[in-house]
Structures are given as C-alpha cells and as structure tokens.
Design goal:
Blueprint: E1 2-4, H1 7-13, H2 18-23, H3 29-36, H4 43-53, H5 57-60, E2 61-63, H6 67-72
Length: about 70
C-alpha cells in the first residue's frame, strides 16, 4: 500500500498553499482530493510535486506492505 507523507504541508513549506495550487492550476482539484484520500495518482503528478516542493519521492510517499497484497503476489 502506498501512503502519502504530509504532501500538502511540504508544498506549503515550499511556498505553495493549497489555494495557490488551485489558483495556478498546478495540480487538478480532483488529484489533490485523491492525495488527501490516499488514492493513487500518476507519476506526472508526483513529478510535479517533487519539482515544486524540492522533495525527493521518498520524502513524499512510502510503501507499506499490505498483508492481503502479499498473499496475492
């Protein structure tokens, strides 16, 4: 399972509030909601977040093994 690690806090620290992200149309609102809900987003979005926040991908997302997923592999 992939989890997001304080993505919007890191964006805010880099000078991008959620209002600014919406206003400048940097990330679509639906995608922002997917991040809040812990749903998957595409790599282009992750790339944009890394570029804007100055963070590495491992600072933004984490993989946590899911017991059910492990059984299906």
């Amino acid at each position: 399972m992939i989890i997001y690690k304080n993505v919007f806090e890191k964006m805010k620290n880099a000078g991008y509030s959620t209002a600014a992200i919406r206003k400048e149309k940097l990330i679509p609102e639906g995608t922002m909601q997917n991040i809040r809900d812990g749903k998957l987003v595409n790599l282009k979005t992750i790339d944009t977040i890394c570029r804007l926040s100055g963070c590495k991908i491992e600072e933004l997302i984490e993989y946590i093994p899911d017991e059910n997923t492990q059984k299906n592999v």
